Amino acid sequence: xxxxxxxxxxxxxxxxxxxxxxxxxxxxxxxxxxxxxxxxxxxxxxxxxxxxxxxxxxxxxxxxxxxxxxxxxxxxxxxxxxxxxxxxxxxxxxxxxxxxxxxxxxxxxxxxxxxxxxxxxxxxxxxxxxxxxxxxx
Length: 137
What we know:
Blueprint: H1 2-7, H2 23-30, H3 33-39, H4 55-62, H5 65-71, H6 87-93, H7 97-103, H8 119-126, H9 129-135
């Protein structure tokens, strides 16, 4: 966290790496809540990397519930490409029950992946019984 505060004045908050990831993407990936909170007001929360992934996708995929909860206060949960997996899809795929609980009120459980599977189908296929119980109405 101290290093983030130290180098930020010397760099551009909008700088991206080769794959289009921002500092917020990396903070979401790391799970460092303090660093994430520091960068959040300075960043574009809905920015997509080169693969169409947002910070919300990253935090959900990796099970960072606190960061996901913070992002849901500011980030869009509507994604332009219905063919791409949603944050709910990624958290279900990886069995992150706490993240699924946060995402459910903001997500359509009827969304399907390219093979027609919903999050409920995916949780059953992966054996994530706790996640399936959370998804079921």
